[in-house]
Amino acid sequence: MNNIKVLHYDAFSPYPNKGNPAGVVLDAAHLSESDMQSIAHKVGFNETVFVVSSDVADIRLKYFTPGHEINLCGHATMASLFALKTKGLLGEASSVKIETNVGVLPIQFSMDKNNHILIKMKQDQPKFIEFNGDRAKLAHSIGLSLDELEDDLPIVYGCTGAWTLLVPIKSIDSFSRMKPINSLFPEILTLLPKASVHPFSLHTLDPHALMHARHF
């Protein structure tokens, strides 16, 4: 466990500390799952991804939050594949297959007009489950009042590899006031206590965006 190099990548943004941070360990074959969990806890990002060999794909990715392993993580996948590609560890390949806990998924690489690497990944088939918990307690857990939740859209658990609770919000003004009380989540998310919480609005700051969101 000594001298483990954890790379820090900010996915979905070209600007340092403006994207979604992920830890990446490129050579994790010698690490046990308990080692990986300990490293992810020390790193403290939402997810840290570990690259290991695979018998059924080009590589296998294992994802850990500070508290437990998860089956799939989009931004950590982007971070690890960008690291592997830019460091020359995937050669000239325009596509690879990655093994995850939800199965083998295809990844495609291309270049934009500015010679930046573009990465396209396929996630798991989407699944949804209705939220039947206490809406007022849910609003409180993210620092809002009940009347700030959108009445015309359902609150549902969604999954394309990792479960999150999709919470529609009426006004974009509410997002700056959100202060999550993460310790309350498990008792509110009784069906899936390890799920994350994803408040979103169909009102946006950027006219080209489809929605505005935060993630806890």
From TrEMBL:
Q: What is its EC number?
A: 5.1.-.-
- A Pfam family that this protein carries is PhzC-PhzF
User: Sorted alphabetically, which keywords does the UniProt record give?
Assistant: Isomerase
InterPro entries for this protein: Phenazine_PhzF-like
Q: What class of enzyme is it?
A: isomerase
Q: Look up keyword Isomerase and say if it applies.
A: yes
**GO molecular function list:** isomerase activity
Q: Which domain of life is it from?
A: Bacteria
Q: Which family does it belong to?
A: Belongs to the PhzF family.
What is this protein's name? Isomerase YddE
Name the gene that codes for it: yddE_1
